[in-house]
Design a protein that fits this description.
The structure is a single chain. The chain is an all-alpha fold and 461 residues long. The two termini are 41 Å apart. Helices cover 62% and strands 0% of the residues. It has 24 helices and no strands.
Length: 461
């Protein structure tokens, strides 16, 4: 059995961590849960930052705008389960398609009627549609308020300014006061919020329709959704040579990370990196009511197992980050599957088995997390080769993945799930014992038991 962790490589990676690159790469995870084409937040950041530069924003305001744009969807996972429950629909597809309607009440009603409960029984669908039509305003406000408040709270946890927090919180406010959650209007809307919403509409319509469609849509919403001055600024910016070419280029992220707005706070320390990992763990865990705080608990169990096995402090810190981010690939999976109360069909099971692959792909993009990416990809592998996604077995599975696997399964067993209630600790440990040597490493299971036993002991008088 080998160890994945390499102290020298981990330290070298830390020396090159830049906040813009780290968050820009992590924003690809947010694109997944919003059902947007890869790079949506990055493209929005390019669009919006150029608008801010055209307006002559000072360095501080431009930096706040830059990170508002990159992180505008921080709270997006928090309403996924509610969307599935209300609309009886795949949350990812629903959110993706909703962004392409023209914003009118008639279009919204047509969308709801065309999307709600398509795979449900007739009576169930009718009940859902009637409920939505009777309570549509309240439902929409609650969904947006949940997402916006959650996003602002996570931004605060990541040390971002109040301007960034307010920009994320007010993302869905409209210039004429018809937006949500608070119905504020005109100059009461934070500038970076209105720019972020404009940039979002530009990218959505460019990707789903065409450049010209995006331009026409922005013009159409001038004075209703957007400050007319921002619309004029966008029209000037989009006419500049190279704007659309950069927006569609495969290396737009490198262009974005090299902008002056990204130059401040370039380097981040170990503590800040821990906080960012914990914040994105919150994004993952918010996706389902059954995974609330799952990642943070797995990080705790991982750490106590690692401590019992004698891993040093730096190794344990590195492994805690891997535990916090091990399920980031679940952002790509619909809550219709994650929260299903019953047996998964083959297609749904295939989707679940893809989440480690998605997670590894996301983390591989990020220099600071590249060395933990294999753990996100292998935490469901089993010693006997019957795990997923690759069917690794025995010595192919590293020590850290074995630790994480035990911690992950132990927490899953001792927490509520859609298909069963939480198990008592002793029963969960007996299941781990039963699968020791086939699925789990006996040393990791024993270390977990020892750590839990120490936690039960009263402190000496």
């Amino acid at each position: 059995m080998f160890q994945l962790y390499n102290h020298d490589l981990a330290q070298a990676a830390m020396k090159t961590v830049r906040l813009s690159e780290l968050l820009g790469s992590l924003s690809y995870a947010l694109d997944l849960t919003e059902g947007q084409p890869v790079g949506h937040c990055v493209r929005c950041c390019w669009i919006g930052t150029n608008i801010g530069m055209h307006l002559g924003l000072d360095d501080t305001a431009l930096e706040d705008l830059y990170y508002t744009l990159l992180l505008k969807d921080l709270g997006c996972s928090s309403n996924a389960a509610r969307i599935c429950a209300l609309y009886l629909a795949d949350d990812i597809t629903f959110k993706r398609d909703f962004k392409t309607i023209d914003g009118s009440l008639a279009a919204a009603l047509r969308f709801v009627l065309s999307k709600t409960g398509l795979e449900s029984g007739f009576s169930e669908r009718i009940r859902a549609v009637v409920h939505i039509l009777q309570n549509g305003g309240t439902i929409a406000r609650e969904l947006i308020e949940t997402r916006c408040q959650r996003g602002a709270d996570i931004a605060a946890k990541m040390r971002f300014s109040k301007a960034v927090q307010d920009g994320i919180h007010s993302l869905d406010e409209h210039w004429n006061g018809s937006g949500k959650p608070n119905g504020i209007k005109a100059q009461d809307i934070p500038l970076n919020a209105n720019i972020a919403l404009l940039a979002q509409v530009v990218d959505v319509f460019t990707q789903s329709h065409s450049r010209q469609a995006a331009i026409e849509e922005i013009k159409h919403r001038s004075g209703s959704w957007f400050d007319p001055a921002l619309v004029e600024a966008f029209l000037a910016v989009q006419a500049q040579p190279g704007f659309w070419e950069t927006l569609s280029s495969s290396d737009i992220d490198q262009t974005l990370f090299a902008m002056d707005a990204a130059s401040h706070h370039q380097q981040i320390d170990e503590d800040h990196l821990d906080e960012i990992a914990a914040a994105f763990a919150d994004v993952v865990d918010a996706k389902s009511p059954f995974t609330a705080e799952h990642s943070s608990r797995v990080a705790i169990y991982t750490d106590i197992i690692a401590a019992e096995l004698g891993l040093d402090t730096a190794h344990r810190r590195w492994l805690r980050r891997a535990a916090l981010l091990h399920d980031i690939g679940k952002l790509a999976i619909s809550n219709q599957i994650l929260d299903k109360n019953g047996k998964l069909d083959p297609q749904e099971w295939q989707a679940i088995q893809s989440h480690p692959v998605h997670g590894e792909a996301i983390l591989t993009r990020i220099e600071a997390f590249r060395d933990i990416a294999p753990l996100a990809g292998s935490h469901h592998e089993k010693l006997d080769g019957k795990g997923y996604p690759r069917g690794w077995k025995g010595e192919e599975i590293c020590l850290e993945s074995r630790i994480l696997s035990v911690a992950d399964v132990f927490d899953a067993l001792t927490a509520d799930r859609p298909y069963r209630a939480a198990m008592p600790i002793e029963k969960a440990l007996s299941i781990l014992d039963k699968d020791t040597g086939t699925a789990f490493d006996g040393r990791c299971v024993a270390a977990l038991k020892m750590a839990l036993a120490k936690m039960k002991k009263p402190e000496a008088a």
